[in-house]
Every structure is written in C-alpha cells, then in structure tokens.
Design brief:
This protein has helices at 54-66, 78-83, 122-125; strands at residues 11-22, 27-32, 38-42, 48-51, 72-73, 98-104, 111-119, 138-139. It has one domain (17-139). With 145 residues, the chain is of the alpha/beta class.
Length: 145
C-alpha cells in the first residue's frame, strides 16, 4: 500500500443543516449546529462525499448513544461502514438536509474545505425524543478518508 497523500494538522468536525447549494462553485452553505452561524463548505476534487444508508446511520446513532454521551469515535468497526457507504455529489443534497463535515482548521472560521462530507446523518444528530439536532460528542475519524 502506498499513500497518495499525507494530511496532518488540526481537524474539525462540523454538523450542520444545508441552507443553500452552489454547484458551480462546489460549495454548500450550512447552519453550524454548534455555533448557530452560517458556514461555507468548499468541496474539492479530493473531498470524499458519502451518503450513509439508513441502517448504517442507525447503527452509529445507537453506538453514540450507548456511549453515555461521554464520547464516541467512528473508528474501529465503524470506519469500514463509513468507507463502504455510497458516494454522492452536491446535487444529491437539498436544503434542510443534515450533514457532518470533517475539515482542517483553516485561517477563517466562516469557510472550510471538506475532507469528508457525510449525508444521511439525521439519526446520529437528532437527540432522542426531540426534533433538536446536535453533533454532541461524536467525532468523525478521518484517518482513512
């Protein structure tokens, strides 16, 4: 196995709801669920876009909630589930969809470039028994984007 690229530095995991899409600029504008502020996510040719099948999202949600909200990493046996999820494009997203994005920490907090963008994450983000969504303690492990 030969690495094509090595990425190091500080990483950021962001959960948000799609506000708008700009397919020509390869950008999606989201409302960051943590900060409650608008954020632009740039998608590059190197970005990995995946849509979690409902059963995978449910499995991850159960694992996160089973952690007692003390923290969970989508690693170990979850990483293959993430990697085997079908690819998607920005055109597959629509206003109101929830996404989780991993990115490097950039110079500005209002714009990030996605390393990994996951759709189909509503079951993971939705707090049980409510309509409220939050990233909580879930961290997207990007060791193998």
């Amino acid at each position: 196995m030969t690495a094509e690229e090595v990425v190091s530095g500080s990483f950021r995991t962001i959960a948000g709801v799609v506000l708008s899409l700009d397919a020509q600029q390869n950008e999606v504008r989201i409302n960051d669920l943590d900060t409650k502020k608008a954020l632009v996510v740039k998608v590059s040719a190197d970005s990995s876009l995946r849509k979690l099948p409902p059963q995978v999202a449910q499995a991850i949600a159960q694992r996160v909630r089973g952690s007692g909200e003390n923290g969970a990493r989508a690693g170990g046996d979850l990483q293959p589930m993430l990697e085997s999820s079908p690819s998607m494009t920005l055109a597959d997203l629509k206003t109101g969809d929830a996404i989780v994005v991993s990115s490097t920490v950039g110079a500005t907090t209002e714009r990030v470039t996605a390393i990994t963008l996951l759709g189909g994450v509503e079951p993971i983000l939705r707090r049980p028994g409510t309509q409220e969504m939050s990233l909580g303690s879930w961290i997207l492990d990007i060791d193998n984007p």
